[in-house]
Amino acid sequence: MPAKENLFAASARMSLAKKHPLKDPLLQEEPWCATCHSRPETRLLCCSRCHTAWYCSKDCQIADYREHKEDCLDVSKHWKFVEEEAASLRMTRFAGNDENLFEMRVGFFGEIEEMHDYIEARLGLMTTYVEAAFRVEIKSVWEKALHHALALLRLNATGPPPSPILSAAIFIPLILQRDDDTCDMIRFFINIDTEREEDMHEYFRMHSESKEGDWIYPREKNCRFLNFFDECADLTSPDQQMPFLLALLLVKCGIVATYNAISRSIKVFESTSGGQRIHEVQMIVKEMLVDESLVNIKSQRKQVDRLVCGIHRNNCVVLRTLLEPDSLTGYILSQEERGLDVSLSSGTMSLLVYCMRCMIRIPGTHDVLEEDFMKAGFYDD
Ligand SMILES: [Zn+2]
Ligand SMILES: [Zn+2]
């Protein structure tokens, strides 16, 4: 093939990659018809009961009804619970006060017994949205799930956050390609000193001055590129929470995978253009490459190494399971055949599900992790 055609072909591939450098094969930016997956010119109809399913026509809605019914009723049932609990809280007077609890006690819901049923109901609602989001993979449904997770973190700030809420708040932004948000949150939670009065004062101020569903954690642009071993003391100490470490590892593997993919595309481009029209190439490359000094790929690779070692030292099952999920499902099935019940805690299970979902979002993440795991010799353990 003549050089020119090669260049065009490479350029077409590049601009495709440029359009979707972090293409997630699952996430749907816009809703589509739950039955036929079409996106008609005219508006899709949204299920008015649950707002998690869309249809191109009445026929498609009817065709999906049996499949959809249970999930749909689940969402509306949990909404009802939340509203009932909220109504009863509004009726409750504390020490004769007439205060609006939803404004005055933000952050302290965990400490007040009367609020616990409300928190439980809200957690149930968040969980149904998370489940719906995993099913439909539509951006706005993921955003709803995140909204409820953030609302819960905001209401209930005393004590360590319950793991399903924390996992949702950490991993859903990753699925939504908001890696900086996830990193901001991880850094915040690892570094907050709950013994320090000023820290806690500032922490509760952040809560009381926010609105429901707000992102209240301090934001830093490009936080994902920072060296987290500099940012956080004792990052991989044995008592560090696993969701933080795993989310961070997936962010870092994603950066390395993206960098590798771009470098490969550049090599193809250079070899096929034979040095001609080099400034055209350079222009595209410049647009595609983020600032090298900002990325600092050496540091990113090193952080992957250290996180892999740290996580594997703390838990020798989790990374292997992520790399070979079939071995886990195979193990569970074989145990079930023998009539044994494999009880993985629901926290561990949901952590694995989130991680596996996040590994798909950037093609190449799995390879980066696998290579590092192998290099460290952990397959021989
Ligand atoms: Zn349809
Ligand atoms: Zn519905």
Automatic annotation (TrEMBL):
<keyword id="KW-0862">Zinc</keyword>
<dbReference type="Pfam" id="PF01753">
    <property type="entry name" value="zf-MYND"/>
</dbReference>
<dbReference type="GO" id="GO:0008270">
    <property type="term" value="F:zinc ion binding"/>
</dbReference>
<keyword id="KW-0863">Zinc-finger</keyword>
<protein>
    <recommendedName>
        <fullName>MYND-type domain-containing protein</fullName>
    </recommendedName>
</protein>
<keyword id="KW-0479">Metal-binding</keyword>
<dbReference type="InterPro" id="IPR002893">
    <property type="entry name" value="Znf_MYND"/>
</dbReference>
<feature type="domain" description="MYND-type">
    <location>
        <begin position="33"/>
        <end position="72"/>
    </location>
</feature>
